[in-house]
Design a protein that fits this description.
This protein is mostly helical and 287 residues long. 72% of the residues lie in helices and 1% in strands. It has a two-stranded antiparallel ribbon.
Length: 287
């Protein structure tokens, strides 16, 4: 009686490292430093915290700014921007080195057991972009179709992120003007109560504090938040393009060492330089 063939062992799924959310100490520290410098200067000049704590001025500036943004922005974009606000203070973008190591581990497993062995790993991936690209590869989708679908998704994500950043940019444009409006309203109250010195003092305080709130909120938060979201978008696009190139290389059946060389070179070429404001360039756009 011939011996029974040994059962074929099912490949063990790779350990998937979840994305980590880390506080952005640059944003937190920058805001704290700016407020400390401004309020510290006020105190050094003999002022008091109560001098800038004017609820009326805050209502005028922030209520007026929010109203102007509501007129400008479609509700669905405004809701997305509100949800995206946490990304100003928290960094959740995967580092290029971590993405490369993850893709290399997938490439090694696919080379040994076939790309179908990555099905369970793909389903467990926390990153939706890589999960979708790898599932398309496992399902046997044509290579050109994978690239077109995933590049379209990248472009849509860029479009949405830019629309959300423009919400904060619009708020930064409206806030100083609404602050001037608050100053004018305060001066109107001053002119109505010239006979009452206390009312005159309160009106002048509201006038100047409204201007401070408008200019300060625009230049210390709204405009920097818009630029921070754009920087987050560029980082996310950079990682997604790297992931797409890795999945394409796995489908092509390249050696993991060659894949590592390609992705490391790609990462070096696409890392935004200091002060660069444009999106990372794709390999075909690099001369």
């Amino acid at each position: 009686m011939p011996p029974e063939p040994a059962p074929k062992l099912k490949p063990v799924p790779l350990a998937i490292k979840p994305l980590e959310s880390r506080p952005d100490f640059a944003t937190i520290g920058g805001l704290a430093l700016a407020l400390a410098g401004i309020l510290g200067g006020l105190l050094l000049e003999g002022g008091r915290m109560q001098d800038v704590a004017q609820i009326t001025a805050a209502c005028i500036v922030f209520g007026g700014t929010l109203g102007a943004v509501l007129v400008t922005t479609p509700p669905r974009v405004l809701m997305r921007a509100a949800r995206r606000l946490s990304r100003v203070f928290v960094d959740q973008v995967q580092q290029p080195g971590e993405a490369i190591e993850q893709i290399i581990s997938f490439a090694g497993k696919a080379r040994k057991h076939g790309i179908v062995s990555l099905e369970q790993d793909a389903d467990n991936l926390p990153d939706p972009f890589l999960r979708k690209a790898l599932n398309l590869a496992v399902d046997g989708t044509d290579l050109d179709a994978i690239r077109k679908m995933m590049e379209l998704e990248i472009e849509l994500d860029e479009h949405h992120a830019e629309a959300e950043a423009k919400v904060f940019e619009a708020a930064g444009g409206y806030a100083p003007t609404v602050g001037i409006l608050g100053a004018v309203l305060g001066l109107i109250q001053v002119m109505k109560h010239l006979e009452n010195i206390e009312e005159v003092g309160r009106g002048i305080a509201v006038a100047f504090v409204a201007t401070v709130y408008g200019v300060g909120s625009a230049n210390l938060f709204f405009l920097p938040a818009a630029n921070k979201l754009r920087a987050r978008m560029r980082g996310a696009v950079h990682i997604k393009e790297l992931m797409l190139e890795g999945v394409v290389a796995i489908v092509e059946g390249l050696n993991p060492k060659l894949i590592r060389t390609r992705l490391e070179a790609y990462a070096r070429e696409n890392t935004p330089a200091a002060g660069e404001t444009g999106a990372p360039r794709r390999p075909q756009e690099i001369a």
